[in-house]
Amino acid sequence: METIKRIKIIKVAETENRHIEDWVAVEEPLEIRLQYGPLDNRIKKSISITMRTPGDDVHLALGFLLNEGIVRHSNEVLKCSLQTFHKGELNPNIITASLHPEVSLHSFNLERHFYTSSSCGLCGKASIEAVQSLGLPQLPKPTPMVSIKTICSLPALLRQHQQAFDATGGIHATALFDYNGHLIHTAEDVGRHNAMDKLSGWCMMHEHDLTNKILLLSGRASFELIQKAAVTGIPMVAAVGAPSSLAVQTASACNITLLGFTKASSANIYSHPERVTGL
Predict the structure, then answer these.
(1) Predicted pLDDT at 261
(2) Which letter, b or e, does each residue of 67-90 get, where b requires 16 or more Cβ atoms within 10 Å of its Cβ?
């Protein structure tokens, strides 16, 4: 499926109105289904519908399962199948994750995952209570490891790889860098939380050591993104935009170094500056 599409628009300007073609980000629903239980008696259940930009759907599903506490390791997922058969036809907007039979879901409330919009990955009192009940991991104690100059160089490096954003101007990105400023992986989506889930799923599949990695967010840093970074195991988060108060509180509690308003020549450090050198 395509990630961007061309449409006809009217471009309004002071001197003239023009009929032109423009690019927009594709937004389609993705239904995430689970198969779990003994191999001879599998249970099938739909747990989420999220509005996403098609692409990296397997990573998105795996990241969602990781960040919601359903799985912890890639070996707990036997396979993840896109284009699930639905009403006799292959549906590219349905993905099924088949869990290892030893994965227990007895204490997990699957009913709370029915709908997630592209703008909010954490909606409603039930979802907030569920995240709080998971408990947030506390990452290793911060030690000086990365220079502020390197961190401030990251937004420009990410922009060079935001192909969908360049075409549409309406899509979010997450990126994983090492402490030397080398880009490891990027993910784009119309939803901030989806872009983060795609990155988390990629990290889980590739089993990267994340203790010396930096997460860069193309927009603001909300609580849900810091929560996902903590679960994924990334100790440093730099955002191009502003953090929320709960994001700062969560980063502090999880030993995450959080930076906001990250630009070529400046940044604000909101928690655990101990990891940053050159201050």
Answers:
(1) 97
(2) bbebbeeeebbeebbbebeeeeee
Q: How many CB atoms lie within 10 A of CB 38?
A: 9
Active-site residue, from 120, 152, 203, 254 = 120
* Closest CA relative to residue 233, chosen from 137, 144, 150: 137
| Residue 118 confidence class, pLDDT cut points 50, 70, 90 | very low
Q: Where are the beta strands (DSSP E) in 151-235?
A: 172-178, 183-189, 213-217
User: Is 120 an active-site residue?
Assistant: yes
Average pLDDT of the chain to the nearest whole number? 86
Catalogue the E-assigned strands of the chain.
Answer: 4-12, 17-25, 28-36, 43-52, 77-86, 89-99, 146-147, 172-178, 183-189, 213-217, 236-239, 257-260, 268-271, 276-277
pLDDT, one tens digit per residue, over 184-227 is: 999 999 999 999 999 999 999 998 889 999 999 999 999 999 99
- Partnered with residue 24 across adjacent β-strands are 5
